[in-house]
C-alpha cells in the first residue's frame, strides 16, 4: 500500500516532484523523463505511469525556462516512438506462438485472425488515437504486434501518433501550464487528463457491446 501511495502522490503532484528533480539534478531530468515515457509505452505491465500529466508539466517547465523545449520534445518523442516499437516487437514475438495454439476455451484462433484483419484496416487510427488514452496506449501496440499488423504501417502511425501526443501536450503545457488558474487547479486537471479519456473508452466499449447485442444473428 505504501508503494501505491507513493506512486499516486507522484502522479498527482508530478509538478512538484519534477521541479525538485530539475533543481537537484539538472540535465539528468531528461534521462529520467526518457525512461518514464519509454517504460510507460514500451512495457505492457506499466500502464499506470503519468504520461499525459508528465508531458503537460514538462511543457510548463519549459515555459518558465527551467527546461529546454526543443530538447524535451525531441527526447520524449524518441522515447514514445521507441517504446511503442518495443511493445509491438514483444507482441509480434509472441504472436506466431499464439497462432500455433489449438482452439480452446481460453483461445479462439478465428478471433485472432479477425484482430489481424482489424489492425490492417483500422489499426492506424487506433494507434494514433490510443496515444491520448491512458492504459489503452500501453496495450494498443502490443495487440498490434500480436495480431501481426504490418511493421511499416505500424511505424508510420506510431511516428504520427507520437508526434501529435508529445508535441501537442508539451506545447499545451508550454503555453497554458503557467496560467494562474491552471497552476491553482493543476491537481484537478491531472485527474481530468486521467479520468476523461478512460471514461470515453469505457463508454465506447459499452456502446459497441450494446450495439453488438442488438445485431441480428
Helix content: over 70%
Biggest β-sheet description: none
Fraction in beta strands: under 5%
End-to-end distance? 47 Å
Give start-end ranges of low-pLDDT stretches. Answer: none
What is the count of helical runs? 10
Q: Element order, helices and strands?
A: HHHHHHHHHH
**Judging from the principal axes of the Cα atoms, what is the shape?**
elongated
**Count of individual beta strands:** 0
Q: Find the structural class using helix and strand composition.
A: mainly alpha
- Mean pLDDT across residues: 76
> Which radius of gyration do the C-alpha atoms yield?
19 Å
Q: What is the number of domains?
A: 1
Oligomer: single chain
What does this structure look like?
This protein has 217 residues and is an all-alpha fold. The protein has one domain. It is built from 10 helices and no strands. Helix 2 crosses helix 4. It is elongated and about 55 Å long.
What is the gist of this entry?
The protein has 217 residues and is mainly α.
List keywords for this structure.
10 helices, 217 residues, mainly alpha, single chain
Strand-helix topology:
Blueprint: H1 2-12, H2 14-25, H3 28-42, H4 51-63, H5 69-99, H6 109-130, H7 136-146, H8 151-176, H9 180-184, H10 186-214
Helix pairs in contact: 2-4, 3-5, 4-8, 5-7, 5-8, 6-7, 6-8
Amino acid at each position: 500500500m505504501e508503494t501505491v501511495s507513493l506512486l499516486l502522490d507522484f502522479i498527482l503532484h508530478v509538478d512538484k516532484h519534477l521541479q525538485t528533480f530539475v533543481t537537484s539534478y539538472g540535465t539528468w531530468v531528461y534521462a529520467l523523463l526518457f525512461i518514464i515515457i519509454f517504460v510507460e509505452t514500451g512495457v505492457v505491465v506499466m500502464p499506470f505511469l503519468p504520461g499525459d500529466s508528465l508531458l503537460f508539466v514538462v511543457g510548463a517547465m519549459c515555459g518558465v525556462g527551467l527546461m529546454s523545449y526543443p530538447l524535451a520534445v525531441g527526447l520524449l518523442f524518441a522515447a514514445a516512438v521507441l517504446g511503442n516499437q518495443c511493445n509491438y516487437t514483444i507482441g509480434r514475438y509472441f504472436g506466431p506462438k499464439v497462432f500455433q495454439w489449438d482452439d480452446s476455451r481460453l483461445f479462439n484462433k478465428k478471433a485472432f485472425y479477425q484482430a489481424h484483419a482489424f489492425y490492417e484496416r483500422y489499426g492506424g487510427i487506433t494507434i494514433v488515437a490510443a496515444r491520448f488514452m491512458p492504459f489503452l496506449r500501453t496495450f494498443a501496440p502490443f495487440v498490434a504486434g500480436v495480431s501481426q499488423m504490418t511493421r511499416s504501417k505500424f511505424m508510420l502511425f506510431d511516428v504520427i501518433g507520437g508526434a501529435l501526443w508529445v508535441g501537442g501536450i508539451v506545447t499545451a503545457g508550454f503555453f497554458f501550464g503557467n496560467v494562474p488558474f491552471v497552476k491553482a487547479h493543476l491537481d484537478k486537471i491531472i485527474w481530468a487528463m486521467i479520468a476523461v479519456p478512460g471514461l470515453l473508452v469505457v463508454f465506447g466499449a459499452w456502446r459497441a457491446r450494446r450495439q453488438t447485442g442488438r445485431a441480428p444473428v
